[in-house]
C-alpha cells in the first residue's frame, strides 16, 4: 500500500511539473516576438504579460476600438497604421515604451495612455480626427516626439526636463505649447501650427542643439544661453524677437521674412559660429540689438528696407560682409572695429538695391577685404569641417553600439528564459524516470 502511495505521489509531482513546463513555455513565447493584430482576440497572445519585447503591429484593420490591458512596459516597436475605422486605442496600464508610432489613422480621435511616463519615440502623424492628446501621469522622459498633420487643439502633460527632438508641424488647431520644465533640447522645430497663431514658451530652457521656428505669433525663451548648432526664425508674425541671455550660436543665425518684425534684441550674444543672415523683414528699419557681438566666423548678409545698422562691437567677420537695402537713407555705421578675413575694413560698402533680395542670393563679399586672408580662412573652415566629421561618426558608432547592446540584452534575456525552460524540462524528465523505476519495483 505504501509503495502505491509513493507511485501516486510521484505521478502527481510529475504532472504538476508538466503543467509548469507548459505554462512557462507559453509565457515565454507570449511575452516576446512579433504580434500582428487584426482583432481584439489577437491580444490574447499576450496572456498575462506585463512586459513585452518585440513588435506589435496593428495595420490595415477594420477595428473601431482596441484596448491592450496589463502591459506596463514595451521594448521594441508598437505601430498603429492605416486603420481607417479605428476611433480609439487604449493602453491603460502602460508606463514605459520604446517606440510608439501612430500613422494614417483617419478616424482616430482618442489615444489613451494615462500612465505613460517614459518613451523613446512618440510619433503621431496624419490623424485629422485627433483633437486632444494628454499624458495624465506626466511624460517626464522623451527622446523623440513628433506631432504632424493632426487636429489637436490641446496638448498637456509633457513634463520632461530634457528632450532629444521635438517636432510640431502643420497642426492647424494647436494654438500654444508651454514647457515649463524643459531645460535642454537637442532639436526644437515648430512649423506651420495654429494657422500662424501659434505661441511657444519654454521659460527655463537653457541649452539647445538647433532650433527652427516658423509661422509663430510669439515665442519666449528668456533663459536660453547657448545654441550649439543653427537657429532660424522665418515667416513669423511677432513684432519683437528677444533672446536676453543667448551668448553663442554655434552655426548660422537666420532672421528672415518676418513681415511684422520691428525690433531685435540679443544683448549678450558675442559669437556666431557660421553665418548671420538677416533679410526681407519689411518693418525692421534698424538692425540693432547686437551690442556685444564681436565675431562672426562665416558671412554676414544683411538685406531689406532698413536705414540703420548698428554693430558697435563687431570685430571679425570670417568670410565677407554684404549689406543691401532698398531704403534711400541707408547709413552704415557701427562697424568701426571690423575686420573681414583678417583685413581691416575702413569703409563698409552699403549698396542701395532696386528691390528686395533674398539673402541667399547675395554675393559673399562686398567689402575691401584681403583675398588671401579670405582663402586662408576658408581653408581653415574646411579643415574644421573635416575634423568634425569623425565626431559625427563617433556619435553614430556610440548610438549603434548602444542599440547593439540593447539587442544583445534582449537575446540574453531570451536565452535565460530558454535555459530556465530547458532546466525545468530536465527536472521533469528526472521525476518521470524515478516514477518509472518506482513502478517497476512495485510490480
UniProtKB/TrEMBL annotation:
Composition bias (Polar residues) maps to 360-391
Where, per UniProt, does this protein localize? Secreted, Cell wall
State if Glycoprotein is listed as a keyword. Answer: yes
Q: Which Gene3D superfamilies match?
A: Receptor L-domain
Predominant cellular place of this UniProt entry's protein: secreted
| The protein's name in its UniProt record | 9111_t:CDS:1
Signal peptide boundaries: 1-26
The record's section on PANTHER family has: RECEPTOR PROTEIN-TYROSINE KINASE, SPORULATION-SPECIFIC PROTEIN-RELATED
- Do the record's keywords include Signal? yes
Q: Which InterPro entries match?
A: CWI-Assembly_Regulator, Rcpt_L-dom_sf
Q: Which GO cellular component terms are attached?
A: cell surface; fungal-type cell wall; plasma membrane
Q: Keywords, A to Z?
A: Cell wall, Glycoprotein, Secreted, Signal
Note down the stretches annotated as region Disordered.
353-407
Please list the residue ranges that the record marks as compositionally biased, kind Basic and acidic residues. 392-407
User: Single Gene Ontology BP term?
Assistant: fungal-type cell wall organization
What organism, scientifically named, is this protein from? Answer: Ambispora gerdemannii
